[in-house]
Amino acid sequence: MEDDAPVIYGLEFQARALTPQTAETDAIRFLVGTQSLRYDNQIHIIDFDDENNIINKNVLLHQVGEIWHISTSPADKGVLATCYNKTSDTKVMTCAAVWRMPKELESGSHESPDDSSSNTQTLELLCHLDNTAHGNMACVMWEPMGDGKKIISLADNNILLWDLQESSAKAVLSSSTALEGKGQLKFTSGRWSPHHNCTQIATANDTTVRGWDTRSMRQIYCIENAHGQLVRDLDFNPNKQYYLASCGDDCKVKFWDTRNVTEPVKTLEEHSHWVWNVRYNHSHDQLILTGSSDSRVILSNMVSISSEPFGHMVDDDELSDQEDQHQEEKIKEPLQDSVIATYEEHEDSVYAVEWSSADPWLFASLSYDGRLVINRVPRALKYHILL
Amino acid sequence: MAAATAGSGAGSGAAGSPEATGGSTGGGGWRRPHGPLQRYYGPSTAEAAEAPPDPTDINGPHFDPEVFMTKVRSECPLGQLLAREATLSREIRALDSDMQTLLYENYNKFISATDTIRKMKVDFRHMEAEMDDLAANMAAISASSARVSAALQDRHRRGAQLAGVQALLRKLQALVEVPGRLRRWAGTEPARALRCHARARAVLRHYRHLPSFRAIEDESHAIMAELAQRLRTRLRCVHPEPADECVEMLLQLEEPAEELSEEFLSQAGARLEAELAALEAELPTADPSGTATTPPPPASDILDFVDRGSSAFVGTLCQLGRLEPFAAALATRYFALLERRLALERGLGDTSLLVRALDRFHRRLRALLELLPTGADAAAALVARAARERVDRYLRALQTFFLGCLGDVRQALAAPRPPGKEGPGLPDLLATLAASVLGQLKAVLAYVQLFTARDVAFASLPYFKFWGVTLREGLVVAFVRWLCRTARGFADGPAERGAPAAPPALLLLLARLCLDYENSTISYILTLTDEQFPPQDSGPAVTPGPALCAEARAAAQRLLDHYVQVQGAAVAQMLRKSVETRDWLGTVEPRNVRAVMKRVVEDITAIDVQVGQLFEEGVRRAQSSDSSRRAFSVYSSSRAPGRYAPSYTPRSAPVQHATWTPSLRPRAMYACCPLPQVSVLTGIIKISLKTLLECVRLRTLGRFGLQQVQVDGHYLQLYLWRFASDERVVQGLLDEVAASAAHRCLDPVPMEHSVVELICERG
Q1: Which end of chain B, C or N, has fewer beta carbons within 10 A?
Q2: CATH of the domain at A18
Q3: What angle do the packed helices B478-492 and B373-414 form, to 10 degrees?
Q4: B739 vs A: CB within 8 A
Q5: Residues of B in contact with A89 (CB under 8 A)
């Protein structure tokens, strides 16, 4: 049972921003934002045809500046938000805006590749997130599983909650809060929790991870010195509330129970340089994906702290449907935490890894040199989890 | 039948041939000699059970000449018949001559037998007459003897009577004297009095109906009662020695045994109690809550304690030997007290004293222990426990000592140094640390050797048979293990959150220490131990030296990795802050190398010096020609060349660095670095430069910003290449920084190389 070879796609520009098309649940589609100071920046819509192992791309122009962060609406396939650098001769400002892509690109590509290169299309601007008073935008988060009307952006030391009105044509700042403290505080990243009715977010600044309640805009927990050095990214366990993963410059990935912030539940030390990205699989939360500037992507199996610590549980009704004879086979040994695979297709620092929103066994990673690699979870493991 | 007899007599060979020709069964080999015997004693069942009688068997009992003849005649050819006839006639002739010989021999014997019988007849007739004479004489003798005895009988009876009277009179005399004797001895020799009384008692009792005897008996009774009284007081009095004697005598006086034993035991018990109490008084009161402050030092030393316990208590106890449960209970209490006293030996004090005390305890107790088998085990266990406890205490003391040394080292490292004056160098600290720890270990080994000294009696206990193994595992191996663990602890533990991290120099020092242990110290210590305590062949398995070495090596490796991480992170942090906080877009044209770069070079130089003090250099790639640019000799002179050089050969260093080429990313950034100095430095530099690269990529630069990065990069290259194992590593990373900076630059106009060089020279 050979695993499929990874599929590699190269962009002409350097790139840091990668996101799956969240609202799309059928087709495997990723969006990549490029970084170029001298040319028009682009958003590549990468369609992956799983059956034929073929990549189709569509390119949208993003002329306002280089993209540092990109995210897509969970409700509307055509809506996305970017954080981009606006540069003048003396100043760099990171702004954020919500965009709509052309209708025909929303779901799949119908064009031939040679056509797209000559005839690139442009994004339609829906609204700017006005940050003149708040500083540089670090990232934009959509309310998970929401109707695509609420977004939160992190700007320097501010958390801004926006309401998108008039079909996203207008962004109204509904509430905000600022992190006060000594020195220049700056959020580096954040994540919106899918639990607790989507009322919590977590942010990272320097070595600290903080949790916030979006209703009161108050801090609810704080993990001081979560990492020895800068915290780069966070992610919530989609199936287990209170569980949070973080990664940072100390090369570690840590798993936290936010109810007890004194000690991490688990620590991974597999990378040999900064870990830029950590992502839980959306359905099987034992699968953890991390990307690092040691150019590696590591897929780990953290069974012991997942929502399925003893493998796939067989439901009672499921059992009654099947014959009882299968019952014995279903009882398995508790699995060990382990590194499943280390992917070394990249030659430069990997700044982004993402699971596909459509296929839980597929993920993409993006390195600075513009190489996008699509990989799958090894089949043996996939069947082990499923069966 | 004639042929059969002849066959049994002489011609067995002749008898065999017809059988052989007759084709008889092959199993006759052993049966043949038995055949005639069996026939003699009657036909056996086996014979009867055999096949029907064969009339043609010439040796068989059913031989029928007619049948045989007809058979032979009808079956055999003429030639064979003739041959048979010749054989038969030859056999008959032989048999005849044999018969004649036998006849002659037997005839001679018969003749001589007849002669003998005739001679005997004549002799017997002669003898009969003599016998008659003898009988007559005997009768005469017996008659005269009867006459003599009858004459003497009367006199003899009177003599006997007289002797009886005399004996009786002597006895009476003795009886009369009994009271006097009793009185004389009762005071001084009660035992003799008792013996005397015992002899007289039965007689007196028998004749008590005679008044004179009654008087004697009463008198002696009175004396004996008095004696009993005296004995009882003596028993009760504190002086213990002949207590059992007293009891014995009292028993002879027919005092009630129950009461006596009660009294005796209570006496002995009270005395033993008093002794135990005296012993206990020396121990500090046991604090039930266990929160006592340090107990006052015991009043007397352990030897004294045991000495007193042995002489007084054990002595008394020996007398009680027979009363097993009673004595056992008391002995248990004594052991408990001794154990408590031993527990008080908290300090390391004088081991020889302890050994002597234990030895004395063991010796004294041996007598008692023959009576109390359970006590023997308990005592042996007690000695073993005390010894084991002592070893554990030594281990703890060693550990405390080591931690103390480490504390000193930390303090020496942290102590502020007056400028210009060098503090103690790392090699000195290391040497001091290693030497003092080793010295302490040796001293401890010497102490514990006392336990197996030749003159120590308990050394022969089964427990001490494997004393060497116990020491090796419980003391030496445990200490080395603990040392490695502790060292690793500095790398694994507190770096996480909170808790002050160990200073990097300490990490380095410990790494070197572990490495030294791996290389030489462990094997040295183990050899030393084995020499002092020769290993037993049959002993339990011991931890092999290589396993310990591997542990030490792993600890050293872990510490060095951690050192690289800590130092790398420190430098990286500095670089990251400097890149993040600068406005790269609006910066002015660079005129100087940024101060932070100088700082980085200074720090790395300091690290190099630090590492160089403890580790040999390792392999560097060929250096470029302009190495004269800097007074490099400063470092090499401070490096104490050759000090540790022979102890280590660089491992896999070339392999490690071969993985780096500018096109390959630094995969092994933090990965385990091989040990020599140069790899440590390479690791730190890699971490630093990679950080610079990542940080620059996060910024947007103006033209002058790019130029500043250019200047900084050149400066770093000038001063860092010499520390790396392969200067291409530095070069490659710096190239990448420059490329990234150019990419992130809005107006990429690089500075002229000559200008860059000029600025760097000036800086």
Answers
A1: N
A2: 2.130.10.10
A3: 40
A4: no
A5: 585, 702, 746
